[in-house]
Structures are given as C-alpha cells and as structure tokens.
Design goal:
Elements (H helix, E strand, L loop, with lengths): L1 H20 L3 H11 L4 H25 L5 H23 L3 H26 L12 H18 L3 H12 L4 H27 L6 H21 L5 H24 L4 H32 L4 H8 L1
Amino acid sequence: MRTLILLALAGLGAQLVDGSLGMAHGVISTVLLLALGTTPAAASAVVHLAQIGTGLVSGASHARFGNVDWQVVTRIGVPGAVGAFVGATVLSHLSTALAEPVMAVILLALGLYVTWRFTVRGVPRGNVGRPLGKRFLVPVGLAAGFLGATGGGGWGLIGTPVLLAGGRLEPRKVVGSVDAAKALVAVAASLGFLFSLGSHGVNWSWVLAFLVGGTVIAPVAAWLARFVAPRILGSTVGGLIVLLNARTLLADWFHVSGTVGACVYVVLCGLWAAALAHSVRAHRREKDTRPEPTSKRQSVSA
C-alpha cells in the first residue's frame, strides 16, 4: 500500500510538471519505476497505459482553457503514434541487460538536454501565427513517439522544445497541443507493449496509482500552464533527471561507488544548483524588462 501511495504522489507530481511545462511526465515516472526494480519495458508500459487516461484529462483541460491547436494535435499525434508503436516493439524485444543501460543513457541525455535548453537558452520566442506544416510536424512526431516509447519518456521532451523553437505557436498552445496528442501516442505505445509482453508483464495496480494521481492534478496543471515560469521549472526537472540517471549508470554500469561516486554526485548537485540559480536570475531579468500590458499603462497615465 505504501508503494501505491508513493506512485500516486509521483504521478501527481509528474503530471503537474508535464501539464504546466509540456514535458517530463514519462521520464519522472520511469525513473521512479526503474528505481523500484521494474524492467525497462514494463516501466514504459505502465507509464504509457497510465498516460492514456491522464493524456485525455489533460488534453480536455487544456482545451477548456484554450490551450490546444487541434490541427497541430492531428499532424503530430498520428506520426507520433506510429513511432511509439515501433519503439515499444523494439524495447520489448531487447534483453534486460541491454535495455537498462540503454534507457539510462537515453534518460540522462534527455535530462542534460532539458537542463541546457532551459538554463542556457531559456524559452524561445518567434513569430507567432504562421501555421505549422506536415513537413515539420511529421518527422518531429515520429522521432518523439519512438524515443518516448524506448526511453520511457521523450514525447514532450522532444515535441515541446521543437515546437517552441519554431516560434509559430504561443507557449501555452504548444504545451496544450503536445499534451492533447499524448493520449493518442500512449494508446499506440501501450498496444505495442501489450502485443509484445502480454498483459502479465504489466502491474495494473501501479497503472491505476499513476492514473489516479495524474488525473486529479491534470486540470490544475493545465490552468498553471498560463502562469508557470518554464525556465525555472525546466532547469529543476532536467537537473533531477540527470542526477537520478547518473547514479544508475555509475553504480550499475561503471561500478563506481564509495568516495569517487560521492564526489561525482556532489559535483553534479553543485552544477544543478548553479543552473537553477542562473535560471532564477535570468527569469527575474526577463520579468523586469518585459513591457507592461497596454491596459495597465493606460490606467497609470489616466
């Protein structure tokens, strides 16, 4: 029972981050499941099965707040589903000895990317309003869906930054559209895992725990997407992912422990703290230099 409560709380926290930032639900959840001793394929299967429900609730919540572009959802979600099904099939047929370090490397790389993306570059801004075409969205969906299934997370980590970098959608609509498409991707990935592993390879009580935690917080996360500081949250989540997966690789793959391992963790924690402090300062500078809303300036002059 304690494990189920922990998983429900993890699902709640993961969805809170994902619904407001557009990424990291799968990575956070998968890291926890791997720490509990689950195989990579089973962990990814649990996460994607839960994401069917959380994705639907999150997508509906984002739509309610006007955060969804349904044309983008279709154009990125369908190829994402294809990539996710293929990725789930590939991961299911890898041996556990090979799959664990492969997934840890993927997760570590994604964590490093997220940390760098939001700490150094911040949130990209471009010319909003120009429609996103299939030539752009189809390959993004295929890559994000495949990586999301094989790495246990990656749909939002790839899709959200790429769409943000395009600068053609408001950030809140990028987050909402990627989240809404996730349900379709999760269905395809789940079918791939079920066909390859069978239902006996899935812990359904864990799926339910993640589902309950995620669906409870999804509407709140969708509302927060309009106000959250993505730069700070991105640096926080990215650093946590790096730290957790570096520990897995050092201990289980490179067999580094004791003083050397502790020194590596201390250095990583220091770098994480420095990245977070930089993001906080950068966010404050951006907030101070941001022009005041027109209505506020008019009321002051009056």
